[in-house]
């Protein structure tokens, strides 16, 4: 009888000790930590390379300088009222003229003929009125003698009054023709300086066409744009000095006027400063308006214009937070002075801003998960 022998059982598999897997786990964790720390170090390095500026504390109020220009209180553009060729032009640009002085003469032959025709028609109307008046007197005499009826007298009276009205109309037409003939002579309305003379002898003047412009040199002023934040401290007794190109020293403003309307785009008001009579001034000259410290000045924040990011109607800057990340923040800006622009709201003193918006935008997009 055959005997079946059982096969020996395989030796049990021994599991690797747990302490033999720890070197691999520690190695993987070390590599992950190295990658994370390396990425953070790279991001910190890029943040450190980003040019930035600390927004300084708003210091004490200082004198404010505004840019302005000289302009004339009385500036007149003389236009033609009648059509005709310019036949006389005794002035040129830059000439000083007196009130009532002849500036130019326009061909008046057509106007004179029209006035003569109106005068002849007026004489004919006067003759008709004289005849109607005599006829009305005769009709009244006949009516008193009972030779005509009341209806005939009324008809004569109506004819007399109608003729009288025609005479008045012809006289008014004659006065109008004589007035229009006076439009052919252009005279200065006041003592002035000829600023522009765009026409020449022989040019055709048409109604509404500008013939010349002039201004009063004895009444000049400086206009500047004042920020809304500075308007409250300004009064008509504020001592304001003005520096004008070509003048050896600053001159005080003789009168101060601040217009009440505020420009919605720049949030500024128009400041007008009357000037004393000075030689050598002309409209258009550059001027600087100096507001004394404490008069109409307040402590403000300003940042470089190059740090501002423009997106359609949005004005913003990249503010670096406590973690060193640039964050876009909207601002409300004020007036610009040189390479600096005033910050009205959206930024506080002590915050750090990026000076290169494009580099900050790239860094921010790269730091997003």
Automatic annotation (TrEMBL):
<dbReference type="InterPro" id="IPR006143">
    <property type="entry name" value="RND_pump_MFP"/>
</dbReference>
<dbReference type="InterPro" id="IPR058624">
    <property type="entry name" value="MdtA-like_HH"/>
</dbReference>
<feature type="domain" description="CzcB-like C-terminal circularly permuted SH3-like">
    <location>
        <begin position="302"/>
        <end position="355"/>
    </location>
</feature>
<dbReference type="Pfam" id="PF25917">
    <property type="entry name" value="BSH_RND"/>
</dbReference>
<comment type="similarity">
    <text>Belongs to the membrane fusion protein (MFP) (TC 8.A.1) family.</text>
</comment>
<feature type="domain" description="Multidrug resistance protein MdtA-like barrel-sandwich hybrid">
    <location>
        <begin position="77"/>
        <end position="209"/>
    </location>
</feature>
<feature type="region of interest" description="Disordered">
    <location>
        <begin position="1"/>
        <end position="20"/>
    </location>
</feature>
<dbReference type="InterPro" id="IPR058792">
    <property type="entry name" value="Beta-barrel_RND_2"/>
</dbReference>
<keyword id="KW-0732">Signal</keyword>
<protein>
    <submittedName>
        <fullName>Efflux RND transporter periplasmic adaptor subunit</fullName>
    </submittedName>
</protein>
<dbReference type="InterPro" id="IPR058625">
    <property type="entry name" value="MdtA-like_BSH"/>
</dbReference>
<dbReference type="Pfam" id="PF25876">
    <property type="entry name" value="HH_MFP_RND"/>
</dbReference>
<dbReference type="Pfam" id="PF25954">
    <property type="entry name" value="Beta-barrel_RND_2"/>
</dbReference>
<feature type="signal peptide">
    <location>
        <begin position="1"/>
        <end position="42"/>
    </location>
</feature>
<dbReference type="Pfam" id="PF25975">
    <property type="entry name" value="CzcB_C"/>
</dbReference>
<feature type="domain" description="Multidrug resistance protein MdtA-like alpha-helical hairpin">
    <location>
        <begin position="113"/>
        <end position="180"/>
    </location>
</feature>
<dbReference type="InterPro" id="IPR058649">
    <property type="entry name" value="CzcB_C"/>
</dbReference>
<feature type="domain" description="CusB-like beta-barrel">
    <location>
        <begin position="222"/>
        <end position="291"/>
    </location>
</feature>
């Amino acid at each position: 009888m055959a005997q079946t022998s059982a096969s020996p059982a395989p030796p049990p598999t021994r599991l690797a000790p747990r302490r033999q897997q720890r070197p691999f786990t520690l190695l993987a964790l070390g590599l992950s930590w190295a990658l994370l720390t390396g990425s953070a170090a790279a991001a910190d390095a890029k943040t450190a390379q980003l040019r930035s500026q600390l927004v300084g504390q708003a210091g004490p109020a200082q004198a404010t300088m505004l840019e302005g220009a000289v302009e004339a209180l009385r500036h007149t553009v003389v236009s033609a009222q009648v059509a005709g060729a310019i036949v006389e032009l005794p002035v040129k640009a830059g000439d000083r003229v007196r009130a009532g002085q002849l500036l130019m003469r326009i061909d008046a032959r057509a106007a004179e003929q029209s006035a003569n025709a109106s005068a002849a028609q007026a004489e004919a109307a006067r003759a008709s009125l004289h005849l109607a008046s005599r006829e009305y007197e005769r009709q009244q005499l006949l009516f008193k003698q009972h030779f005509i009826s009341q209806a005939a007298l009324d008809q004569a009276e109506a004819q007399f009054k109608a003729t009288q009205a025609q005479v008045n109309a012809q006289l008014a037409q004659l006065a109008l023709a004589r007035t229009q003939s006076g439009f052919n002579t252009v005279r200065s309305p006041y003592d002035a300086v000829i600023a522009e003379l765009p026409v020449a002898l022989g040019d055709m003047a048409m109604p509404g066409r500008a013939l010349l412009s002039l201004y009063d040199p004895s009444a000049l002023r400086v206009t500047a744009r004042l920020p809304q934040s500075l308007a409250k401290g300004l009064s008509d007794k504020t001592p304001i000095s003005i520096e004008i190109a070509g003048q050896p020293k600053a001159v005080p403003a003789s009168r101060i006027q601040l217009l009440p309307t505020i420009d919605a785009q720049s949030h500024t008001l128009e400041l007008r400063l009357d000037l004393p009579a000075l030689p050598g001034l002309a409209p258009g000259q550059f001027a600087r308006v100096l507001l004394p410290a404490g008069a109409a000045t307040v402590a403000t924040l300003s940042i470089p214009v190059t740090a501002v990011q423009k997106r359609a109607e949005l004005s913003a800057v990249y503010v670096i937070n406590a973690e060193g990340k640039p964050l876009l923040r909207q601002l409300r800006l004020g007036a610009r002075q040189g390479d600096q622009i005033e910050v009205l709201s959206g930024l506080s003193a002590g915050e750090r801003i990026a000076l290169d918006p494009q580099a900050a935008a790239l860094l921010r997009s790269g730091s997003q998960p």
